[in-house]
Write a structure and sequence with these properties.
GO terms for molecular function: ATP binding. There is one protein chain. This protein starts with 13 loop residues before the first strand and ends with a helix. Helices cover 34% and strands 24% of the residues. The longest helix has 16 residues, at 183-198. The protein is built from 19 helices and 20 strands. It has three domains: 14-248, P-loop containing nucleotide triphosphate hydrolases (Rossmann fold), CATH 3.40.50; 249-338 and 424-431 and 451-509, 3-Layer(aba) Sandwich (Rossmann fold); 346-422, no CATH class. The strands form four sheets. Strands 6-7-8-3-9-10 form a six-stranded mixed sheet, with helices on both faces. By secondary structure, it is of the alpha/beta class. It has helices at residues 52-60, 82-87, 105-109, 124-138, 153-166, 183-198, 210-216, 239-247, 301-309, 331-336, 346-350, 357-361, 366-369, 377-390, 407-419, 437-452, 464-470, 493-501, 504-507, and strands spanning 14-23, 26-36, 40-45, 67-72, 75-76, 90-93, 171-175, 202-206, 219-224, 227-233, 265-274, 278-286, 290-294, 316-321, 324-325, 339-342, 425-429, 456-460, 473-478, 481-487.
């Protein structure tokens, strides 16, 4: 393993060499190395816990390194605050920007440094003109006068980038910027990133999505277990090689789908309709079977799942579990009949972040655990320990807050919560979104095991490799309509995408 990420060549705009960071006895970063060059987009990849976030926080001035070198244009730096990092020309664009919602787009860009006229009055006309110039330069159209409240995540990120450019940032760090964006929004963001690269800025792009890394980036650095592993030009590597370096195993292990005995229908959906959302949706999921709901973002997949579970309404149709009809708009009745739903947004809909891991794990079975109306911590911890152990949740203690866990471990806790109810049907909405490749393999292995135990699983996923790798059947949804039902043997990227982009009658031809 090389000591440094940088190769011989032009001096990097930003360079970290063998950086170490520990929090008490826990070593978060053992040997972090990275070299960012002007006019280049550099990817940083690694599993959750690999040290990426710690490295970024050192760059941003949130943490100070314990050892190692941190250089800007060849000069040693040691930031003790985010203000120092920004003043040095570094900007970090996070997945969820933090703007002032009641202020205008322009006011957010120039907050704390508004241009002034005589007597110290703010020159709002000049400020607006400069905002428009920034958006023109970035090739985007945004109203500089509108409040940021209600803007999409994509537009908020553009505002953060405009702010960085107005500060003449020479290094931009984009930390999981596409996780909440649609395909069109991602393309716009990438166009902006490329224009910044072409201006000679150095960009760091952090993502779990390999297709985006290969589409956007010039170079990739891989980290594992807090240490630098390798740096390669994108043109000289492959997804399989990156996965092997990240997790120490071959890509073939990412989708460990084991054959399962498929039995009788457990979940039967017939004619489910909610005007303007989905129409005449019908399908079955049998015991031991993993059925994928596939389609483009906005096709109505999550809305169908939420209606089945009783969270969202539907005007007509029926949902049956084991032959018993599930009453509409009644999640409690659905749970009693053996249905569980792992939602897409684990942080907002699946967890109470300020509550312990044990409390989150047992949240859906608290009534059953109580004796004479009293639930003890011992009973709660004992029940939580069973599922958290099975799912290999990595946490310092069961009383640790769920919000302190990594994204992958938070997803495991949500899965544990619902598996503790011992469902016969499990609906999982984007089960591996935003988690690293190693944890994805663990989640896939768990789903395969559950199907092998006879559970019926309905999986919603936007990742085609996941759909093709895990599903026994694929139900494709387009604009709220089922356009195709494809058996595993016939499911390919082409057949699924064709059905996702064509009407049912066209897909059947």
């Amino acid at each position: 393993m090389p000591d440094e990420a940088a190769d011989a060549g032009p001096q990097p705009a930003l360079e970290l060499r063998r950086v170490v960071k520990a929090f008490g006895p826990v070593i978060a970063l053992r040997s972090g190395s990275l070299a960012l060059h002007r006019g280049s987009i550099h990817a940083l990849i690694g599993e959750n816990g690999a040290g990426k976030s710690t490295l970024v926080k050192i760059i941003a001035g949130l943490y100070r390194r314990d050892a190692g070198d941190f250089l800007l244009d060849g000069d040693s730096v040691d930031f003790s605050s985010t203000a120092q990092s920004k003043a040095a020309g570094i900007a970090v664009i996070y997945q969820e920007p933090t703007l002032f919602p009641d202020l205008s787009v322009t006011e957010n860009i120039f907050m704390g440094r508004q241009p002034t006229r005589s007597l110290g009055r703010i020159d709002r006309k000049l400020m607006r003109e400069q905002a428009l110039e920034l958006f023109t330069r970035l090739g985007v159209r945004l109203d500089p006068d509108r409040p940021t409240l209600g803007l999409s995540i994509a537009d908020q990120q553009i505002i953060e980038i405009a702010k960085a450019i107005s500060l003449d940032a020479r290094v931009l760090v984009m930390d999981e910027p596409t996780a909440a964006l649609s395909g069109v929004e991602v393309e716009r963001l990438f166009a902006v990133a490329r224009s910044l690269r072409d201006e000679g800025r150095a960009l760091l792009f952090i993502s779990h999505r390999f297709d985006e890394v290969f589409d956007l980036c010039d170079t990739v650095t891989i980290m594992r277990d807090g240490s630098y592993i390798a740096t390669s030009p994108i043109a000289d590597t492959t997804v399989a090689e990156i996965v092997r370096q990240m997790v120490g195993r071959d890509i073939a292990t990412l989708f460990p789908k084991e054959p399962a005995e498929i039995g009788d229908p457990v979940l039967v959906v017939e004619g489910l309709t909610e005007p303007g959302v989905f129409h005449d949706v019908s399908f079955t999921v049998r015991s031991g079977e993993i059925v994928a709901l596939a389609g483009l973002v906005g096709a109505g997949r999550s809305e169908i799942a939420r209606a089945i579970f009783g969270v969202d309404p539907y005007a007509s149709g029926t949902v049956k579990i084991g032959g018993a009809t599930v009453p509409p708009r009644s999640p409690v009745a659905a749970m009693k009949l053996g249905l569980a739903l792992v939602p897409e947004d684990r942080r907002r809909q699946g967890l109470v972040l300020g509550t312990s891991v044990a409390r989150n794990t047992t949240m859906a079975i608290r009534t059953a655990l109580a004796k004479l109306g009293i639930l003890t911590s011992a009973a709660e911890n004992a029940a939580a320990r069973v599922w958290d152990s099975r799912l290999q949740v990595k946490t310092a203690a069961l009383d640790a807050e769920a919000g302190t866990l990594s994204g992958g471990n938070q997803q495991k806790v949500v899965l544990a919560k619902w598996l503790a109810t011992k469902p016969s049907v499990l609906i999982v909405d984007e089960p591996t979104r935003g988690i690293d490749v190693g944890t994805k393999a663990e989640v896939h292995r768990l789903l395969s095991q559950l199907a092998g135990e006879g559970m019926a699983i309905l999986m919603i996923s936007s990742e085609l490799p996941e759909v093709l790798g895990m599903a026994d059947r694929v139900i494709v949804v387009r604009e709220g309509h089922v356009t195709a039902e494809i058996e595993r043997a016939d499911a390919t990227a082409e057949t699924v995408m064709f059905a996702a982009t064509h009407k049912a009658e066209e897909s059947a031809r």
